[in-house]
Automatic annotation (TrEMBL):
<protein>
    <recommendedName>
        <fullName>Neutral metalloproteinase</fullName>
        <ecNumber>3.4.24.-</ecNumber>
    </recommendedName>
</protein>
<keyword id="KW-0378">Hydrolase</keyword>
<dbReference type="GO" id="GO:0006508">
    <property type="term" value="P:proteolysis"/>
</dbReference>
<feature type="domain" description="Peptidase M4">
    <location>
        <begin position="99"/>
        <end position="172"/>
    </location>
</feature>
<dbReference type="GO" id="GO:0004222">
    <property type="term" value="F:metalloendopeptidase activity"/>
</dbReference>
<dbReference type="InterPro" id="IPR052759">
    <property type="entry name" value="Metalloprotease_M4"/>
</dbReference>
<keyword id="KW-0862">Zinc</keyword>
<feature type="domain" description="Peptidase M4 C-terminal">
    <location>
        <begin position="175"/>
        <end position="346"/>
    </location>
</feature>
<keyword id="KW-0479">Metal-binding</keyword>
<dbReference type="InterPro" id="IPR027268">
    <property type="entry name" value="Peptidase_M4/M1_CTD_sf"/>
</dbReference>
<comment type="similarity">
    <text>Belongs to the peptidase M4 family.</text>
</comment>
<keyword id="KW-0964">Secreted</keyword>
<dbReference type="InterPro" id="IPR001570">
    <property type="entry name" value="Peptidase_M4_C_domain"/>
</dbReference>
<feature type="active site" description="Proton donor">
    <location>
        <position position="270"/>
    </location>
</feature>
<comment type="function">
    <text>Extracellular zinc metalloprotease.</text>
</comment>
<dbReference type="GO" id="GO:0046872">
    <property type="term" value="F:metal ion binding"/>
</dbReference>
<dbReference type="Pfam" id="PF02868">
    <property type="entry name" value="Peptidase_M4_C"/>
</dbReference>
Length: 403
């Protein structure tokens, strides 16, 4: 499990880079300030290490601090503890509620005791820096900028942003997906998946009712954009003169290749997360009902079972296996997972291409999976193949023990 504390930010760097080209000097200045501050924070490894005590178990107790436009977290003022009264500052209350909803989601849906499963305290910081167009998780704290007021509103007001960032902490304490290339894109995708599920759970929305948008409320009303990202339609969250067109791919044939550097988004992690995002959306809608109950359970168990260097193929195979374990080999849930990965051009290993259930399943009007002629034979075939995969996995594990 990876224990490296990395600064995870919700704002895709390609958006901030585009803002550097704006004709508005204030917009350029705010974007540059955000990029420089973010780079500086990434380099301050000692800052996060100095807060090691903050990870002590606390039953997920929330505390909100006000940075008062400063950048140094230790000087922030405590403004709302877990048992304290509501604040007159809406940013404080929104951050407090978002941390609570995320904590309660993991507790009630997955029986997980806070971010680290050991009751980690949840410390939130609002009003970080001046016109800071970002929000981030630094391994110990959830930090929100106020936005520049022109393009971006206050980021503490977005539940999907808070849940996205806190889920980076969950990933740190489970698979520890390394933050570069495909494993990094999986890291980002997990945060989008569960960030969206926290919002759906809080609103009691079905997969069909949800908007599947991440950061739908971070833009000011004057900006023509749906959200930072769309899980339902990667590549279509925005398309305007200010940001350009959403560059996320939705399938492997559109995979983005960039260098594994900060300038290259560590191998395009914010770009290529669109591929597993789309797979989850398709699986959730294919299964129907509340996405956190089946698709979410499959993805969460797969997250826990994955390794730090897992690639898209590895994670896809794991979700297929976990779907069989949780809901039965050849079940509609497992078949929906298979079809979802096939749609984004990832073929589950050990399953013949001819067993393309994407054409054998259709979502019916009630949000379930409709069966068509010939499905029984296909289901039996998938069951046999899945059983073989499970047997091979056990054989490999046994061989490793004898070495």
């Amino acid at each position: 499990m990876s224990r490296t504390c990395r600064l995870n930010c919700v704002m895709p760097p390609y958006i901030l880079n585009r803002l550097l080209e704006s004709e508005d000097s204030e917009v350029r200045r705010a974007a540059l300030n955000t990029l420089l501050a973010t780079a500086r924070l990434r380099g301050e490894r000692g800052v996060r290490a100095s807060f090691a005590g903050a990870a002590a178990p606390g039953n997920g107790r929330r505390t909100i601090f006000d940075c008062e436009q400063g950048r140094f977290l230790p000087t922030a003022v405590m403004v709302r503890p877990e048992d304290g009264p509501e604040s007159v500052d809406e940013s404080v209350n929104r951050a407090f509620d978002a941390l609570g909803l995320t904590r309660d989601f993991y507790q009630k849906v997955f029986q997980r005791n806070s971010i680290d499963a050991r009751g980690m305290r949840l410390d939130g910081f609002v009003h970080f820096d001046v016109k800071f167009n970002n929000a981030f998780w630094d391994g110990r704290h959830m930090v929100f900028g106020d936005g520049d007021g022109k393009q971006f509103s206050n980021l503490s007001h977005s539940l999907t942003v808070a849940a996205h960032e806190l889920t980076h902490g969950v990933t740190d304490h489970t698979s520890g997906f390394e933050y570069h290339n495909q494993s990094g894109a999986l890291n980002e995708s997990m945060s989008d998946v569960f960030g969206s599920l926290v919002q759906q759970w809080s609103l009691k929305q079905s997969a069909e009712e949800a908007d599947w948008l991440i950061g739908a409320d971070v833009f000011t009303p004057g900006i023509d954009a749906d959200a930072l990202r769309s899980m339902k339609a990667p590549g279509h969250a925005f398309n305007n003169a200010l940001f350009g067109k959403d560059p996320q791919p939705d399938r492997m044939s559109k995979f983005v290749h960039l260098p594994d550097t900060e300038e290259g988004d560590f191998g395009a992690v914010h770009f290529n997360s669109g591929i597993p995002n789309k797979a989850f959306f398709l699986a959730a809608v294919g299964i129907g009902g509340f996405a956190w109950e089946a698709a979410g359970a499959i993805w969460f168990e797969s997250l826990k079972a994955s390794s730090a260097d897992s690639q898209f193929q590895d994670f896809a195979d794991t979700t297929f296996q976990k779907a069989g374990e949780l809901f039965g080999v050849g079940s509609p849930e497992q078949s929906a997972v298979l079809a979802a990965w096939q749609e984004v051009e990832i073929q589950i290993r050990g399953v013949p291409t001819g067993a393309a259930l994407a054409r054998s399943f259709a979502v019916n009007g009630n949000g379930g999976v409709g069966r068509q002629d010939g499905l029984t034979a296909l289901t039996r075939q998938i069951g046999e193949l899945s059983a073989k995969m499970t047997g091979l996995a056990k054989d490999v594990a046994a061989l490793k023990k004898t070495r």
